[in-house]
Amino acid sequence: MSFEIIKRDTNIDFVGMRKYAYVLSAVLLLTGFLSLLVKGGPQYGIDFAGGFNVQVKFSQSVELDKIRMALDSPALTGLVVQDFGDAGDHEVLLRASFSEQTANQVREAVNTGLESAFPGVTHEIQRLEMVGPKVGADLREKALEAIFYAVLLIATYISGRFEQKWMVAGLMAAGLASVVYVLDFLNAPTSLSVIVATVAALVLCVVLRLKYALGAIVALIHDVMIPLGLFSLLNKDVDLTIIAALLTIVGYSLNDTIIIYDRIRENIRAKVSPSLDVVINKSVNQTMSRTLITAGTTFVAVFSLYVFGGGVIHDFALTMLVGVVAGTYSSVFVGAPILAFFKPRIDVDEHPAPATA
Amino acid sequence: MGSLRWRALLAAFVIFLALIHVLPSIPSVRNSSLGALLPSDEIGLGLDLKGGIHLTLGVDLDAALGNAITSIGQDLRLEAREKKIPVLRPRLLDSRRLEFTLLKQEQKTELDALLAARFGSMEIISTEDGGNGQLRYVLGATPEYVKYLQDLTMDQALKTIRNRIDQFGVAEPDIRKQQGNRIIVQLPGLDDPKRAINIIGRTAHLEFKLVDDAADVQAAVAGTVPAESELAYLQDKRGASEVKTPIVLKSEVVLTGEYITDANVQFDSYGQAYVGMNFNARGARIFEEVTGANIKKRLAIVLDGTVHSAPVIQDRIGGGRASITGQFTTEEAHDLAVVLRAGSLPAPVNILEERSVGPSLGQESIDKGMMAALIGGLMVVVFMSIYYRRAGLIAAFEIILDICLILAGLVAFGATLTLPGIAGIILTLGMAVDANVLIYERIREELRHGESVAAAINNGFSRATQTIVDSNVTTIIAAVILYQFGTGPVRGFAVTLTLGILASMFTAIFVSRIFFDSWLARRQPGTQPSI
């Protein structure tokens, strides 16, 4: 017979373990949240804050302190010098989160500074990025909007698809859209709108009893907050590619959650058991092989990207790695057990009068 | 069995189409005899892989509006004077409002009629008593006019920048208007960003003004500039250092760069480069008149506010030729000729964002990305074939097919491959097996429940398909939103991710089924599938 990761009669009590899972999640989220709070929000990269990045490759290894001294000029105030890429590459990243200089002035200042300080060493500016503050602010707004619309659309889709509540889901979407419209009208900052709208989405899910959407949104917030918190702890910059990674995690995590939900719905229809806890446990166990295999292969692929993909893609790959682990964990331990939250009404909800079919 | 044959044919056709699109991107195939038969489209590489420059430019629309309204003010004064309505001091209040004084209050009706008839782009905001029988007017540009002028300015700026880049000679530039006042310029493969920016961002506003020789330069520097004159600086390069000499010019512009038909690099008898210009007929006539009327006076050539030279006019100059000298290097003279030929920008342009990637870094990113994809893919393939045996081999084959389909999709839609795009492919490598895993696990389950082999395969596919579709829709939603809100490389990622999901759904649901059905058709009774 073929290989099996999970023995066929495995029956782990995931619903029973949910209290431990909630504690673990709470600790992880709180740590990240505290770090964010202490540091005053995410540390934005130049895409969102404005400033410049210059990636320089030297022909031989050069001490960072010497570079710092060489580049101590008014054109490059607030410069951070750090190693970049693999050790043998002799690459450094120069970055500053604020700059009144044009890209050409920065380029000039770096070139002249390095030429005079390291006469025998050639250097090459491999990459230079300069983002003005206005563009940075626009990109930040866009990124927040992107995350918000992703959550909105996905919540609508899940409610419609899983509970046939397209009308209710549509109402929720309209409600959220009007909340955002009003906030926009009042010139509220986009970050505030997103937070308010997300909270509103959660409240609406509870009020409208959209339990699948609630579970999915909670899992989703969970999976986005964990990498964000980790980045804050590691003092890493959040930039456009990180947002792309976060949105991919959103997709991946939901993918996982929905596969388990699909099975729960199927088992409820098949009347596997009158107890929702048993149904949830059984469904999670049934899909466990698939969950582990897919998470495993995805992890392996992204890990390969993390190790071999080079410095430019490093943080992107790291976000994905954390996201895959968090996403898999949250589908099993957060997204599925949260359905049990609505236990008292589950039978009424799931067995509508057959006449409507 | 007919259906199986048709499905196999369809799959083969799709694979054939994919190969046709992908093969030309492999250099050894493109240069072979086979390459001549294939379409010539290759995979477009994003700037982060190819190297090149991405610029976001902000056009200063307020400045353009201010200029337009200032000249409306001048026209207004001239037209009013012709109608014997004396009007004083038209002055710009801000970029949208113009202020002037009507000398005789009793002419208000006449002036209002003139304004209504000839200056529909402005509306009267207020009039107030200026004392001495004068009336102070404030006009504001109408919203329609503001909109019209902004659109016009953007179109002109876009056209000028496009002209300049065309003359600069960049392959496949991408120049695009964005929302608001922004223009995006992408120059792939270009590795001298400094020079490109100097060409693109230069306003290139060329003016000829007479030098006010009667004025006291020292007094002007101290702050006392005669009326109708202005202080400027003559730029003179001596070796590496630049010397700026103050000079007083008459404010009136005698000729502008808009009459230039051609500009090119020429060399004087010392081998020094300078820029020669030709004027069109109208410009030539004006130039001839001006030079004829001002012999022995100095004529300053002002480019973007800097005086490049101020030669003494020796004689009336006919034929419509002029030149700008100023110790240029050949490259500088060439770039100046380019901007003069392409015309001036209608408004100053600021660089809001610049991203440049050197070609060597791009190649390095491709190499590293390929390496990561190869190793990651290999590990996934090995795992799948051990875990699911023959069915795993099918999945492994499909992973390779997925990558082909993604790349073919990129070529077919003319989308570009970016570094995050490569990351998207690698992510797909991991996630692509998900659809296969869902189906295989389901078949295993059905077999365990004691279903017949054919029923297990059938149920496995049909039950898993719904789950696969449900779960992938969310990822596609995320990808579509990324595409909508993202820029450049992030968009590339969204496209590859979407293509990857579609490809993996096609291969897992459709192609796999062909393998399983053909196995079912050929199998000996009682054999179990290798899964």
UniProtKB/TrEMBL annotation, chain A:
- Chain segments annotated as transmembrane: 20-38, 143-159, 166-183, 189-207, 214-234, 240-261, 292-314, 320-342
Main localization is: membrane
Assembly with partners or alone: Forms a complex with SecD. Part of the essential Sec protein translocation apparatus which comprises SecA, SecYEG and auxiliary proteins SecDF. Other proteins may also be involved.
Described purpose of this protein according to its UniProt entry: Part of the Sec protein translocase complex. Interacts with the SecYEG preprotein conducting channel. SecDF uses the proton motive force (PMF) to complete protein translocation after the ATP-dependent function of SecA.
| Name of protein | Protein-export membrane protein SecF
Q: Which NCBIfam families match?
A: transloc_SecF
What's the superkingdom here?
Answer: Bacteria
Its lineage reads:
Bacteria, Pseudomonadati, Thermodesulfobacteriota, Desulfovibrionia, Desulfovibrionales
Gene3D superfamilies named among the record's database cross-references? Multidrug efflux transporter AcrB transmembrane domain (1.20.1640.10)
UniProtKB/TrEMBL annotation, chain B:
Please give the chief subcellular localization of this protein: membrane
Provide the membrane topology annotation.
Answer: Multi-pass membrane protein
Protein translocase subunit SecDF P1 domain boundaries: 154-213
Q: So where does this one cross the membrane?
A: 369-388, 395-415, 421-440, 468-486, 492-516
Q: Where is the Protein export membrane protein SecD/SecF C-terminal domain?
A: 350-513
> Which keywords does this Swiss-Prot/TrEMBL entry list?
Cell membrane, Membrane, Protein transport, Translocation, Transmembrane, Transmembrane helix, Transport
The chain positions of domain SecDF P1 head subdomain read 243-347
**Cross-referenced InterPro entries:** SecD (IPR005791), SecD/SecF_arch_bac (IPR022813), SecD_1st (IPR048631), SecD_SecF_C (IPR048634), SecD_SecF_C_bact (IPR055344), SecDF_P1_head (IPR054384)
UniProt-listed Gene3D superfamilies? 3.30.1360.200, 3.30.70.3400, Multidrug efflux transporter AcrB transmembrane domain
Its annotated compartments are: Cell membrane
**What is the annotated quaternary arrangement, including any partners?**
Forms a complex with SecF. Part of the essential Sec protein translocation apparatus which comprises SecA, SecYEG and auxiliary proteins SecDF. Other proteins may also be involved.
Write out the similarity annotation: Belongs to the SecD/SecF family. SecD subfamily.
Described function:
Part of the Sec protein translocase complex. Interacts with the SecYEG preprotein conducting channel. SecDF uses the proton motive force (PMF) to complete protein translocation after the ATP-dependent function of SecA.
Family annotation (PANTHER family): PROTEIN TRANSLOCASE SUBUNIT SECD, PROTEIN-EXPORT MEMBRANE PROTEIN SEC
Q: What is this protein called?
A: Protein translocase subunit SecD
